[in-house]
Amino acid sequence: MDETMVPLYPGSGKGTVMGAARDSNRAVHGSRFPASRKQLRGYISHLATVCDNATLQPHMPQFLIGGARLLLRRDFQEYIPRTSGNIFIVRQQSAWVSHECMVVYIRTLSGCLQQYAKEFQPVLLMDTSNVHTHKAVLEACRHRGIWPCFVPAGLTWLLQPLDTHVFARYKRFLQRRYAEEAARRQNPRLSTVDILDLACQGTRVILQGHRWADAFDRTGFGARQRKLGDRASRVVSEDKIELPPQDMPLHRILEAVMPKGRVLSTRLLRRGHCAQDREPRHEKPPSRSHSPPRPWPQRLRSHSSANLPSNADAQAIPAPALSQASSSTSPWRPPTPLGPQPKSCAPLPKACLLAKAPRSTSKQNNRSEER
After folding, report:
1. Domain count of the chain?
2. Minimal CA–CA distance to 153: which of 253, 225, 247?
3. In 28-55, which positions are buried (b, 16+ CB within 10 angstroms) versus exposed (e)?
4. pLDDT, tens digit, for every residue of 49-96?
């Protein structure tokens, strides 16, 4: 599985385009069609899938993802009834593939292969992009019984079958069909719906019309690496790449496969409880003994109503019974909390707390005595 870009204007092939000109001195036009800026910058994403089994290839899901600005709602609703089989049209905010879209793709892949679950074990081969290694994507693979297999970072040009054998042929088909359709209509500007039609044709003819078992064999993912391609064999022989030992821990293998600085949890990839695949545990420092609480050394503000129950809790919290020696008219006070307390002082009236404190007159009295 891998993504590729399908532009609105795939470009023109080799040759010269002749046309009538107003001036006889300008009889030859350029070999490019007059594409607009929207066509040059607009594109849709194709989330393509191929496998090494020709029987299962027609069931592989193919996602065509368009942005909300490019793929309008009316075009989307008009084109949906025309799709059938394993091609799915996705309309979202951006044409970039996100981890939410990947989760939907994995669910769709599991549903398409449900009838072959007893015969085959699906293995999803993908690169180490941030979208593919997301936690939600790996959890979806684990819940659906799909084994993820990552191409080492920086080696997709050599080991990804879609990049080495499929996408170049797919792009050439789109370019040729675009030129034929523009010549038939005598209009080089095709709409987004027309590009979706061309992408569906390319999916039927290229992705589903060929056998891709040889692509997996030449990249080293089939035939036990006995049919490795010339380019892959040359790179392996020149760089002297050695395979890791079978007893190598899983977290060490992930460190070699993933880009530098990315840490991937082995719990999301582990299918069983194996002692050699456990993550290294770092010993925690001993916890400090909790010291006893110390009282606040400064003076606290008096707030007599802090511990009083509210009106809503008056019925739920009964007041303690008064002793016989205390008078029935004395108000109930909250119990004294434990621990050292500040010096007791008489409660100030509410008017005193709200009034502004007058200036001290002690210095004035001292000056009068000296005189």
Report:
1. 1
2. 253
3. eeeeebebeeebeebbbbbbbbbbbbee
4. 999 999 999 999 999 999 999 999 999 988 888 887 899 999 999 999
* 317, part of any domain: no
Tell me the C-alpha distance between 81 and 156, whole Å: 36
Phi, psi of 125 (to 5 degrees): -95, 120
pLDDT band at 28 (very low <50, low <70, confident <90, very high): very low
**DSSP secondary structure, 231-289, as one string:** HHHHHHHHHT--PPPTT--HHHHHHHHSPTT----GGGT-SS--GGGSPPPPPPPPPPP
What's the whole-number average pLDDT of the chain? 77
DSSP β-bridge partners for residue 64: 46, 89
Q: Is residue 17 in some structural domain?
A: yes
Q: Check residue 28 and report its DSSP letter.
A: B
Q: Is residue 309 part of a domain?
A: no
Alpha carbon distance, N-terminus to C-terminus of the chain? 101
Compute CA distances 371 → 91, 130, 183, 361, 366, whole Å: 94, 86, 116, 16, 9
Residue 371 lies in a domain: no
Domain that holds residue 185: 2-275
The residue type at 193: V
Digit-coded pLDDT (tens) for 311-351: 444 444 444 444 444 444 445 555 555 555 444 444 444 44
